[in-house]
Amino acid sequence: MEDERDGQDAIRALDRTEFGYKRRLLRVEWAKKMEVTGKNQAPTNTLFVVNFDVRNTRESDIERFFDKYGPLARVEIKRNYAFVEYKEVDDAIEAQKRSHGGLMGGRTVTVEFVESSREKGGRCVAVSFVMCG
After folding, report:
1. 3-state SS string for the chain
2. Which of 38, 51, 78, 106 is 20 to 30 Å from 125 at the Cα level?
3. CA of 92: how far to CAs of 1, 3, 41, 122, 125, in Å?
4. CA gap 111, 95 in Å, rounded
């Protein structure tokens, strides 16, 4: 879409149209802008990756996609998302900047930082997760 008018035209054309085999009404509207608090923006050495092709992507594929930004400590696929951990935070920052919105196996991936595991009792939590399309 070139500008806001194109978006508005798409919303008008798609809103309240039938979708899927159950012919449910589709609701299409502008996304609300979300404010992100500064406390969750601190980069960590672990990235949360989503929207890759789950059936055809292996950990080795994700390693090849991300190892160009620096040495990896671990790559782990869970259901439909993955964690990519770097040995250095600076490498994770570079990887997030360059790979967020990039193509992996023909799909546009979302790449975000996770909160420090020390703050969440050893569990990784995604700072933000927005999936479009």
Report:
1. CCCHHHHHHHHHHHCCCEECCCCEECCCCCCCCCCCCHHHCCCCCEEEEECCCCCCCCHHHHHHHHHHHCCEEEEEEECCEEEEEECCHHHHHHHHHHHCCCEECCEECEEEEECCCCCCCCCCCECCCCCCC
2. 106
3. 31, 32, 13, 19, 16
4. 9
pLDDT tens digits, residue range 12-57? 888 888 877 778 887 777 765 444 444 445 789 999 999 999 999 9
Q: List the one residue out of 63, 120, 117, 122 whose CA is nearest residue 95.
A: 63
Tokens of 72: 């990896």
Q: What is the value of pTM for the model shown?
A: 0.61
Q: What is the C-alpha to C-alpha distance for residues 114 and 117, in angstroms, rounded to an integer?
A: 8
**90-107: average pLDDT:** 94
Lookup result for tokens 């035209």: 9
Residue 47 pLDDT:
95
* Phi, psi dihedrals of residue 18, rounded to the nearest 5°: -75, 145
